[in-house]
Design a protein that fits this description.
globular, 10 strands, 12 helices, Rossmann fold, 39% helix, 410 residues, two-stranded antiparallel ribbon
Length: 410
């Protein structure tokens, strides 16, 4: 299988050496809007970029049914493709929209002026207005200790002022920067920073957010000009992919020629919806900061509890999901997944069986820099996982699976 460039579909596998390098790269996530928020289990933009270039053309629709932090959508739009993403997490939808929207210079000027006006006046003795409902619903749960309350109170005071920004786009930028700053201050930190340090770091992150948003806007405009496209959009839906074929919100969109995603990992515990305070207690604070509703346990986001017998619920849910994905995809659509397994010896074959029933046939490499089984495996250095099953393999060991939708499934 080969690909000649950005404007040519791959009729087989990717340019193997380029894909292998991108899949195994240890570079930190950076560029465009990718650092707006550190969403758990995100994959490398380099990997997403190489897959999109090889398996789609400018003007095509690229779909991520488990979009998480929106890496696929950011790269798709920057490369001149339409993007579609779905996720059952309202936090994921917030982050993806924040990262794929286009902002104007007037928006940047307004949020910088807001920060200059508001931050110096955040007095911890003051009582913030308009945040009582979130406190009552326990969203800042476990952020009330002696060391963490200054961070919580500073965020609370700042959030009480976001309505003064007037527009949704500007409020979104500030909330996303507050989200990143609070994550930096709280998530798995042993030493919690002071309120002063938090305010200073917010300004650093705000400047980085603005610069990333500028880069993204430039990339999108450049791609539209080069490929003579206009109004490339990204659609991020807060919904399960199961039943998406009946969703009227996608009726006007073309069928995706490429599906690029990282689904829930079988038997692996990844905390998508909470932060951990000092590695012990969980908090739903990110939903509070993003102005999103949650209320679900970890198994809601992972196709069921990882300790369920034979992962029955996981594979039943996966089959329903892949059937809906097949129902909305274009004929011959390629699906590329990055996934890890607690026990790959039996969990991987089971997943492949599920995908086969849903109508996808695997594409494996007979030559090139792949492993003996014809797949690309990678180990992720310094990946932050909260837990793995006892006796299972390291959850940082991931595999790239490439499938094509069979003709009979369309």
């Amino acid at each position: 299988m080969s690909s000649e460039g950005d404007d040519q579909n791959a009729d087989g596998a990717l340019r193997l050496s380029a894909l292998y390098s991108a899949a195994t790269a240890s570079d930190t996530v950076s560029g465009l809007t990718h650092n707006f928020y550190r969403y758990p289990a995100r994959f490398s933009p380099l990997f997403a970029r190489e897959v999109i270039r090889a398996f789609s053309r400018p003007g095509d629709l690229v779909f991520d049914p488990f979009m998480g932090g929106g890496t696929t959508l950011v790269e798709a739009r920057a490369l001149g493709r339409y993007g579609l993403g779905t996720d059952i997490s309202s936090l994921a939808v917030f982050v993806a929209k924040a990262k794929t929207d286009l902002y104007q210079e007037s928006d940047f000027d307004a949020v910088q002026a807001w920060a200059k006006s508001v931050l110096p006046n955040l007095n911890l003795r003051n009582r913030p207005a308009g945040t009582g409902q979130w406190i009552h619903q326990c969203y800042p749960e476990n952020v009330n200790s002696r060391s963490t309350w200054p961070v919580r109170k500073t965020i609370e005071l700042a959030l009480s002022q976001v309505s003064t920004l007037k527009t949704r786009a500007r409020e979104q930028l500030v909330r996303c920067t507050l989200l990143r700053t609070a994550q930096w201050a709280l998530d798995c930190r042993t030493k919690i920073p002071s309120a002063k340090d938090l305010r200073q770091q917010f300004l650093v992150f705000l400047n980085e957010t603005i610069e990333g948003a500028r880069q993204f806007r430039h990339a999108v405009c450049e791609s539209e000009a080069i490929h003579r496209l206009s109004a490339l959009t990204c659609t991020s839906l807060h919904t399960s992919v199961i039943g998406l074929e009946s969703d009227r919100r996608i009726a006007h969109l073309p069928r995706p020629s490429l599906i690029l995603t990282s689904p829930p990992y079988p038997g692996v515990h990844v905390l998508y919806h909470r932060w951990q305070i000092r590695g012990r207690k969980e908090t739903p604070a990110p939903f509070w900061i993003a102005n999103c509703q949650d209320g679900y346990g970890a198994s809601f986001y992972t196709f069921g509890d990882r300790k369920q017998q034979a992962l029955r619920k996981y594979y039943e849910t996966a089959l329903s999901a892949y059937r809906s994905i097949a129902a909305v995809a274009a004929e011959g659509c390629v699906m590329v997944q990055l996934i890890a397994f607690a026990e790959p010896n039996w969990q991987l074959p089971r997943l492949l069986d599920v995908m086969g029933v849903a109508g996808f046939e695997e594409l494996r490499q007979k030559d090139g820099p792949s492993s003996p089984d014809g797949r690309l495996w990678r180990t992720v250095p310094n990946r932050k996982w909260y837990a793995t099953l006892k006796g299972g393999t390291a959850s940082s060991k991931e595999v790239v699976l490439i499938h094509r939708l069979s003709r009979t499934a369309v």
